Amino acid sequence: MRALVQDHYGSPDVLRVEDIPVPAAGAGEVLVRVHAASVNARDWHLMRGEPRLARLAGSDFGRTGPRSRVRGTDFAGIVEAVGPGLTAWRPGDEVYGESAGAFAEYVAAPAEVVAAKPASLTFEEAAAMPLAANTALVCLREGGLKAGQAVLINGASGGVGTFAVQLAKSWDARVTAVCSDRNADLVRSLGADVVVDYGREDFAKSARRYDLVLDLVGNRSLCDLRHVLTPGGCIVLSGGGVSGEGRIIGPMSLLIRGQLLARLTRLRLIVPEAEPSARNLGELSALVGSGSLTPVVDRVFPLKDAAEAVRYMEVEHARAKVVITV
Ligand SMILES: NC(=O)c1ccc[n+]([C@@H]2O[C@H](COP(=O)([O-])OP(=O)(O)OC[C@H]3O[C@@H](n4cnc5c(N)ncnc54)[C@H](OP(=O)(O)O)[C@@H]3O)[C@@H](O)[C@H]2O)c1
Question: Is the CB of 240 under 6 A from ligand 1?
Answer without folding.
Answer: yes
